[in-house]
Design a protein that fits this description.
- The complex is a heterodimer of chains A (112) and B (722).
- Chain A has 112 residues and is an alpha/beta fold.
- Helix content of chain A is 40%, strand content 33%.
- Chain A contains 4 helices and 5 strands, in the order ββαβαβαβα.
- In chain A, strands 1-2-3-4-5 form a 5-stranded mixed sheet, sandwiched between helices.
- Chain B is 55% helix and 14% strand.
- By secondary structure, chain B is of the alpha+beta class.
- Chain B starts with a helix and ends in a 7-residue tail after the last strand.
- Chain B is built from 20 helices and 15 strands.
- The chains are: A alpha/beta (112), B alpha+beta (722).
- The interface between A and B is medium-sized, with 19 and 24 residues.
């Protein structure tokens, strides 16, 4: 699992590369828990190369969901593979989280 | 074989089996060999005594006849005499050869003592005899050639006995730590030596120009053999000193015999001159030279023997350290051994050993130093910041800090006992001389400390593995407890069949299913999956079971159950954990079921009326994701009328997310659906088996990453009349 961050003004783009399983979700949790993340108003998660997400990985996003919402930080997923999106949908997360098809759409929604 | 059988005849009857016969034969061989050895020994003793007595008789006879025939030498039977000499020599030598036992242990000084007490004393006997003879002839004026011959013959016997005994004791020591080459060299030497007896037999004079070079060559051979003195190195200082005395005494014996026979050589009165027997000369040469060599080597290695002793003691201590695990020793014993061995190895005059346990440091071993001195040294080291590192100071006086302490020591070495992970302690050694810890000593000390570290780490590993064993046992109990939480049998009814499968990826898992009979015609079935795996998932799974039984006692619709379960779980579930679940309430009086899905996998269904296989696509959020009233908006309820022969497949994500061996593909909903399309006409049990077999074909053996649970419910056509 490789996580890269790309910062543009008040937007942070996180690119997830690989499999988000029990061990790599710890790294993701650390990144999302970092205090400086609260400085941004938009977090865009690029899931193009995210091949698999385990329940532990989902748990990390879920645990931060409320916190981001309270701080009015927008969390937007884009470029998600179908099988990963299916996992989000079965769990009902597609109704809670913003999942869009591509970067442009993500930017548009983020700027609304 | 025939004779063998005859020999064993009294022991053999018809019933004796082949193996018994064989073992009897073996026994008889051993027995006969022992008999042979004893027989051979007594035969050799007899032949030696007989030949010697005959020789004496013959010599006395000849001397008497020579005396009577006034001066004219009667060379009557020289060949018979020679033959008797050879028989006597061979008998004694071969007897000693058989008699010599194999080397036992490395107590070489006892061999030397053996050699001295049993053989070398012969020389002193012979000299005593000689002086008695001298006394008799000189002071009493007895002039008897017979007496002379008697003394000469006895001394000859003693000489041969001494040579034979010494020869074979030296052989054993010479061949200590032998190699093949040395063994062959020795065998040839023995052969050549005995072959010189033929010269005597044929009455050749060895001083002849033809044989002299051969004798010189043999002498050189002897010199070469005398260089094999490995056993001397194994003598300790005190044993070497004792050996020197014994070797000196043996050398004196050699000298006495040589002198005696030299004295009598070419005496006209003598009938036989044994100095003419080349064999004896060579054997004496070997024994004398080897004794001399051993004496000199012992003498000159005396100053270095303490080094060798120290090394062998170090080696022994290394062995003891490395074997302390097998011997079940404790850490304290290992530290004892370390302290003792390092003090000895470095010849330290003082020292102490600190052990570190957790954050506590305590001094476990002390030698010639008091706590106050230790405290002062430690303070100084702390000031220099060199407490737990390798440190050698071979000249403490040059350092002002140490000089101020006014310690009676001049050298200090600090050896930390630590591995990459742990610090076990520190060893401090002091010596009262400058340059007390040279490179050689330091290396030995470091080897000791690293061996100690290894031993202690291994001891801890052994203890840890015992602990792990205990954990495993407890985990086994956890597995059993969890298994008891999942129902094994469902109520068997005529209106539906149910078949279940569940497999945990680890000892305990987070999948679960359960049922509760709500009323006579209604049954609630729940399936769930806790996020994560292992122990924490297992705890939450047990919690969920409790919530299910607690809430469903009140008989509520599935959506209401999900809302209340979410509210209950919100208070106890960890932040990153959530649970997915589906609840079905089947009412067979109404021929329908009501269900709600909370983020759980879609239910696979076969409708017999429409002959169609599909997934129920309903919305529903997992439990514990939204932990407030908002959750109520995220759960849907659905009612469905079932037909006879309908099949419902309920499962966890471990089934559809199972991967093939190269981890590129997931089993997937489509393949599961396809499987049901092929098997819906079968019994519930057979449908389940078909799906599980297909799944195992897909994943390969032992390729389980997530817990797997599968329930197959088939509604039967025959409805009971209620």
């Amino acid at each position: 699992m490789k996580i890269t961050q790309d910062i543009k003004d008040s937007t942070i783009i996180m690119t997830l590369d690989g499999e988000l399983d029990a061990s790599s979700s710890v790294i993701l949790d650390e990144e999302l828990s970092a205090p400086e993340i609260m400085k941004y108003s938009k977090i865009l998660v690029d899931c193009r190369n995210l091949n698999y997400i385990s329940s532990a990985g989902l748990g990390v996003f879920i645990s931060h969901l409320q916190r981001f919402e309270d701080a009015q930080i927008k969390l937007i997923f884009f470029n998600m593979q179908d099988k990963v999106r299916n996992v989000f949908e079965i769990l009902g997360l597609d109704l809670l989280m913003t999942i869009v098809t591509n970067y442009e759409e993500a930017i548009t929604i983020a700027d609304e | 074989m025939l004779t063998e059988t005859k020999f064993l005849l009294p022991f053999i009857n018809k019933n004796t089996t082949q193996t018994q016969k064989q073992s009897l034969q073996k026994l008889s061989t051993v027995f006969r060999f022992m008999l042979y050895k004893t027989n051979a020994k007594s035969l050799l003793v007899t032949s030696a005594i007989v030949s010697w007595v005959l020789l004496l008789g013959s010599v006395l006879l000849m001397a008497e006849s020579a005396r009577q025939s006034s001066g004219t030498m009667l060379m009557a039977l020289p060949y018979i005499n020679n033959l008797l000499i050879i028989i006597f020599i061979l008998s004694v030598f071969v007897f000693q050869r058989i008699h010599a036992n194999n080397l036992k242990g490395i107590d070489f000084s006892s061999y030397l003592w053996n050699l001295f007490s049993k053989a070398a004393v012969a020389a002193y006997l012979s000299i005593a005899l000689y002086f008695a003879y001298k006394l008799a002839t000189d002071s009493m004026g007895v002039q008897s050639t017979l007496l002379l011959h008697l003394v000469y013959q006895i001394n000859f016997g003693l000489l041969v006995y001494f040579l034979a005994k010494a020869f074979y004791i030296w052989r054993q020591l010479l061949l200590y730590h032998k190699n093949r080459f040395l063994q062959v060299a020795w065998d040839w030497f023995e052969l050549l030596l005995f072959s010189t007896l033929t010269l005597t037999l044929l009455n050749f004079n060895y001083t002849n120009y033809i044989f002299l070079p051969l004798f010189v060559l043999l002498g050189l051979y002897v010199l070469f053999l005398c260089t094999n003195l490995k056993w001397v190195a194994y003598l300790s200082f005190s044993k070497k000193s004792r050996s020197l005395v014994l070797l000196g005494a043996i050398l004196v014996s050699c000298y006495i015999f040589t002198k005696f026979f030299q004295e009598f050589a070419d005496t006209a009165e003598l009938v036989i001159d044994y100095s003419d027997v080349g064999f004896l000369l060579l054997a004496m040469g070997f024994v004398g030279l080897y004794t001399l060599a051993a004496f000199l080597v012992s003498l000159f290695s005396l100053p270095t023997s303490s080094v060798f002793e120290q090394k062998s003691e170090d080696l022994l201590n290394f062995q003891r350290l490395s074997q302390s695990i097998q011997q079940g020793q404790s850490e304290a014993q290992v530290f004892d051994l370390l302290f003792e061995s390092t003090i000895k190895a470095s010849d330290a005059s003082a020292g102490w050993l600190e052990q570190i346990r957790g954050n506590n440091t305590h001094i476990s071993h002390l030698l010639n130093i008091n706590n106050e001195q230790i405290e002062r040294i430690r303070h100084l080291l702390m000031a220099y910041n060199i407490q737990h590192i390798d440190y050698i100071n071979n000249n403490l006086d040059r350092n002002s800090g140490f000089r101020d302490l006014a310690l009676p020591w001049r050298s200090l070495i600090i050896l930390p006992i630590k591995s990459k992970k742990h610090v076990f302690g520190t060893l401090y050694l002091l010596r009262d001389i400058e340059q007390g810890f040279d490179r050689e000593t330091t290396n030995v000390l470091r080897t000791f400390t690293s061996q100690t570290i290894l031993t202690i780490e291994n001891l801890r590993l052994v203890a840890e593995s015992l602990q792990n064993e205990r954990y495993k046992e407890e985990l086994k109990i956890a597995t059993q407890v969890q298994e008891s939480l999942v129902p094994k049998t469902f109520p068997s009814d005529s209106w539906f069949e149910i078949s279940t499968h569940s497999k945990a990826a680890k000892e305990v898992g987070g999948d679960f299913y359960d049922f509760l009979q709500l009323s006579e015609s209604r049954i609630a079935i729940i399936i769930g999956d806790v996020s994560g795996k292992g122990i924490s998932a297992a705890f939450h799974m047990a919690q969920m079971k409790g919530i299910f039984h607690g809430l469903m006692q009140q008989d509520m619709p599935p959506s209401e159950f999900m809302k209340q379960a979410n509210s209950a779980l919100s208070r106890c579930l960890e932040k990153t954990s959530f649970i997915t679940s589906s609840l079905y309430i089947i009412d067979y009086r109404m021929k329908g079921f009501m269900f709600a899905r909370a983020g759980h996998c879609h239910t696979l269904y076969y409708n017999a009326m429409m002959d169609d296989v599909f997934y129920f696509q309903t919305d529903g959020l997992g439990l514990g994701i939204v932990r407030d009233k908002n959750y109520n908006n995220h759960v849907r309820e659905m009612y469905y009328d079932y037909n006879p022969n309908d099949v419902m497949v309920v499962y966890t994500d471990g089934i559809v997310e199972a991967r093939n061996p190269d981890e590129t593909e997931e089993y997937g909903e489509d393949r599961l659906k396809y499987m049901l399309e092929q098997t819906y006409h079968l019994e519930a049990e057979d449908i389940k088996c078909a799906i599980i077999n297909d799944l195992e074909d897909f994943t390969g053996p032992d390729n389980l990453y997530d817990d797997q649970t599968l329930l197959v419910i088939k509604f039967k056509p025959t409805q009971p009349n209620i």
